[in-house]
């Protein structure tokens, strides 16, 4: 798989910088070639292969996330799941009915209107 970029972690840098300069260059080239082009090393020193083998699983995991993200990410919810999230219901022990949060029953609304009208009359 050919890519235009890849994630390079500080831990990679910390491990590679402890190697001699010549080996560092080989490691960087090997990692970049694998991450960008998917080409595994065929001829490399033991030092290069040992660092590469430690970093390879992380590059593979990042590539997997990248391809999954290209598909659109998280799958859409089904209609039934959407309805369940929008209306959380609680069983009312007294009435034996379900009540939806955020909405009042018409009876209660009507009672509030009557109370408000009565309060307005009292103030006049």
What do you see in this structure?
This protein is mainly alpha-helical. 60% of the residues lie in helices and 5% in strands. It has 5 helices and 2 strands. The chain has helices spanning 10-16, 21-37, 46-70, 79-86, 106-123, and strands at residues 89-91, 98-100. The protein has a two-stranded antiparallel ribbon with strand order 1-2. The radius of gyration is 32 Å and the shape is elongated. It starts with 9 loop residues before the first helix and ends with a helix. The mean pLDDT is 79.
Summarize the helices and strands and which ones pair or pack.
Layout: H1 10-16, H2 21-37, H3 46-70, H4 79-86, E1 89-91, E2 98-100, H5 106-123
Antiparallel strand pairs: 1-2
Helix pairs in contact: 2-3
Helix proportion: 55-70%
Average predicted local confidence, pLDDT: 79
| Estimated share of beta-strand residues | under 5%
| Spatial gap, N to C terminus | 79 Å
Largest sheet: spatial strand order: 1-2
Number of helices: 5
| Alpha-beta classification | mainly alpha
**SSE order:** HHHHEEH
Largest sheet: 2 strands, antiparallel
Question: Rg to the nearest angstrom?
Answer: 32 Å
Q: What is the tally of beta strands?
A: 2
- Parts with pLDDT < 50 across at least 5 consecutive residues: none
| Outline | elongated
